[in-house]
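Structure (tokenized):
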């Protein structure tokens, strides 16, 4: 089986998910602490007692989300196919929620999130990224020692990646390098 190095963008996504997990853990523990301590400090406000449990539940959910982000980060880092699929699903859901936020609130943050999620989907569907997750094979071409000239009409191959190229093109469609 062909081994594929982890693409830089996948590494960045994994690190981003670790940072999100750390933030969610901080928020989760802070909410649990606030839910436990607020009733003690706000004795004269009985309505706070009713909501303290809800704050703790939200904090617990934030901790669970943090753990899920850590698991997703591990999957991305190690090239697990399920992490690729989950990342695509999360980015797709992010696009949907961003569009809803744009329609309802017209928020600029929705535009930024929409663009980021679209870039993530685009990136995760690139052939080298899919190959890292075992979702596609990297195309392997047998490189030739010397590319055959345009004048001969014989098939040509890119000197950089070995991909076959048409006689009338100046750039490789596979890797983008200039052809001799």
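Design, position by position:
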């Amino acid at each position: 089986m062909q081994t594929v190095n982890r693409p830089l963008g996948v590494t960045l996504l994994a690190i981003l998910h670790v940072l999100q997990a750390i933030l969610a853990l901080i928020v989760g523990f802070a909410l649990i602490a606030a839910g436990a301590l607020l009733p003690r400090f706000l004795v004269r406000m009985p309505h706070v007692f009713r909501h303290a449990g809800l704050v703790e539940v939200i904090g617990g959910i934030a901790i669970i989300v943090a753990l899920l982000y850590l698991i997703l980060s591990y999957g991305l880092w190690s090239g697990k196919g399920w992490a690729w699929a989950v990342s695509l699903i999360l980015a797709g859901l992010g696009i949907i929620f961003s569009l809803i936020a744009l329609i309802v609130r017209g928020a600029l943050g929705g535009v930024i999130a929409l663009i980021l999620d679209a870039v993530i989907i685009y990136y995760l569907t690139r052939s080298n990224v899919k190959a890292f997750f075992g979702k596609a094979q990297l195309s392997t071409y047998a490189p030739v020692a010397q590319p055959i000239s345009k004048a001969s009409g014989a098939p040509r191959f890119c000197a950089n990646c070995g991909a076959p190229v048409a006689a009338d093109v100046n750039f490789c469609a596979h890797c983008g390098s200039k052809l001799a």
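Reviewer-requested clarification: Confidence is low (pLDDT under 50) at residues 142-148. The first strand starts at residue 156 and ends at 157.
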